[in-house]
Amino acid sequence: MNHATAEEINHFALSLCTINSWLAVIETPPPEFKKVLVTGGCGFVGSRICEFLQNSGYEATALDINPQNALPGVKVRQVDIRDYLAVDRACRGADAVMHLAALVGVPLSLENPKLFWEVNTVGTLNVLEAVRKREVRRLFFASSNAVYGQYPVLDGGIPEDHPKRPANPYGASKLAGEALVDSYHQSYGIDCVTARWSSVYGPKQQERNVVWIFVERALRGEPLYLHGGGQQGRDFTYVDDVAQGGVLALEKGRGGEVYNISSGDTRTVRELAEAIQKEIPGTELVEGPERAGDASQGALDISKAAAEFGYSPKVDLETGIRKCIRWMREVSGGSVS
Fold first, then answer.
1. What is the CATH number assigned to the segment(s) 35-201+237-264+298-314?
2. Residues that are catalytic
């Protein structure tokens, strides 16, 4: 019988240790994120994110330039995202950062593209530098379907690898933010995950998008104007679904990856108006000529997020509209002026 030499036994032992080390790495669960800093945490989506985090057992801190809409029980730090030193101090002690702070809206970006670049792009760079220097364990970046530009309605939706061609400064600022996030992931090994949202709406919304405008006009008894017959496609996504998807991406998304987070359902502006008309009988729909820039956009493909971390939107357009109408009636005392 052949006997192993001492050298062969040592080599086997070292090999076994190496294999066990690999297995330990593979089987090690992702790190827990106890303390999460949410930039833009007092905003429309950010406050809902903070609520989801708190309800899930996290310790959420909101960083926002406008803190008066803070969620009760959430710590708040009043910081301008353009102030790097203040951002750096706020990141101290955070396990993870969810970066939502941004200016939103195409019309505003066309009026002041420089401001959008400073807040959305330079602000993102400030967050990345603070995350890198403070050795924060994970960064979540909130992006937008605006990075795709004017895109068609496709069967199955627009996938994450669809060509990017932003049609306005807002979309360009978000795509630049994505490029910065990816560069920090590749250059410095920062554990980053990005989510692209689409046409977010819901109660407490601050941006006057088409949902907000239509509900307000209908409650006032004013007609809803459907330019081009209202046939423009949109992927309307209820705010709670966005918040759920964002937290799931933070917890379970793969580092360096991008995920579409939306309803995954193409609905037209006319369908939106008809859903409001059903809830507010007597609302008049008036068709008008097409407007420049009113291009149709289809749904995003959300299959990647569904497969990798179980994202599943819960609120359809009709249910979401009822929630918006109920909230607007409550805050206006039954009348909208």
1. 3.40.50.720
2. 170
